[in-house]
């Protein structure tokens, strides 16, 4: 840096001033370590005072009138007086000076060229410094020394001293010492700026951390010391004045999570990766808080050791929410499984229901059944349907349900014979999870599923006695408990029971509870066997032919009259179900448009009931069988009258008396003869 020196005149010139000047310069040099020590010792708050008093000391030592530090901002021509000292009788200068306006020549030397401007006499200033000269003169300056103080390549401050009362010369050692002192001031001011910026930065971080409800920390893995913000200390359950170390922090962490935390820290430091760990921290009051710490490895300088810097947040409510969600998901899954199970049950009911055909009957015997169905349907009363197997008891139950005000909901069926006795109770009343070995989930029983609907208990005679007791209670009080649960469940269920056994005999034999029998037998319906309603056979046969024809893509339009007669004459121990099966088999084997029944060995009518019938019943059955055998032909050769050895008119009158309506006969067109 070039120093502009005007001609020497002042006392400080060592050559001209001799010993006194030399001593002053020596004293100034000695002041450097003293000022330096003072500044090192001072805090950021008292730095200004120290600079001010040091300036005063320097100016007074040199017996000058005025001096100070001017702050130069980048790109701005105005300079600000940051620290100044004025002798009592010297004019004070304003706080900010537009250097480029008042001292354009000096400004160029100082700020642009970074050159010291030392003026001993204003007259020595060059012509281009006319404005500067004028400004100096206005301020009463006789001699002036201005030294640019740089940080990096930029002029940061200027240190200025003025001689007002007389002219001064500025020897090089003085300039050097003054520059050194100025640099001490400026570097202290710069350090303070950096420190204050850091403080502001830290405060901003702290505010951000507090508003994000996180704590900041820094772990020194070598010493284990942890620097932490106040909010981090709160999270870690430490007092504000307590020193946190990794070891005393680990002591506070839940024992089960300690190794995870240590592993995470070690891994992050070793691999220079980010760390993420969730762990529990039991509080003094016993409450367990969940914390999440996320860190990043940071190295202070290329060779310095690594630090883990990070944030910690309290995630207890998130964890609680997760736990709740997890529980809810489990509950949803459980309910979904339950629903699927219930759906399967209901679908199987629907499936069964869809397989049912419309209730078909033309016989007088079934008219009574229909009447009973109509009577009882809307009452909600318990119905007991009895009849041989395959007579259509389930269809009767369906019809009752369909005609009742419960028809909006599906009828639920339990086949007591199809379920193992060990399971029937849980199927009926449901079970709690773990009610018995293998009960892996909670399950609703069919009683609950049939709420506000109808529960059809098929094959009720097969129900185990223990279950009968529970059923009786459910029927009487409308309440029951799931297996394994003490909680009573109340439902509104209409019961329809069916059996192909003689339930009264079962009671007599001690296989069925008498009290339950009477509770079920409120409205009994007896479905007659098919052999007692032969008139139903032809329409049923045609119905099944059409049904199977559609399914198999076959069209049968003819059934030989003798085949139909054989069907009507057969005793049908399996009733309608058996008839249906026979038709199905015949459909499969038939060629062409005729239903071929020649291969079927339909045995002649035989009594099925071991019970003794009345004479009238025997006579009725015998006449029906004969009519069936002749395919409805009454009179003439091969007619029923001839077979029975009766005059046709006698047969007709017997038929009227016994109320034998022969629809099969109608089908054959013999009605006119009746
Ligand atoms: N009147 C009818 N019209 C049409 N199909 C009938 C009729 N009666 C019974 N069926 C048919 O006969 C078969 C047996 O009927 P259902 O199951 O109702 O008899 P069930 O008396 O309940 O038999 P089980 O005592 O063996 O339970 C079914 O395929 C049914 O569709």
From TrEMBL:
Q: Which CDD domains match?
A: AAA, PAS
Question: In what residue span(s) does the PAS domain sit?
Answer: 197-272
Q: Which GO terms describe its molecular function?
A: ATP binding; sequence-specific DNA binding
Q: Which SUPFAM superfamilies match?
A: GAF domain-like, Homeodomain-like, P-loop containing nucleoside triphosphate hydrolases, PYP-like sensor domain (PAS domain)
Q: From the UniProt record, give one GO term of the biological process aspect.
A: regulation of DNA-templated transcription
In this chain the PAC domain maps to: 275-327
Q: Which residues does the UniProt record annotate as the domain Sigma-54 factor interaction?
A: 359-588
UniProt KW keywords: Activator, ATP-binding, DNA-binding, Nucleotide-binding, Transcription, Transcription regulation
Listed name of the protein = PAS domain S-box-containing protein
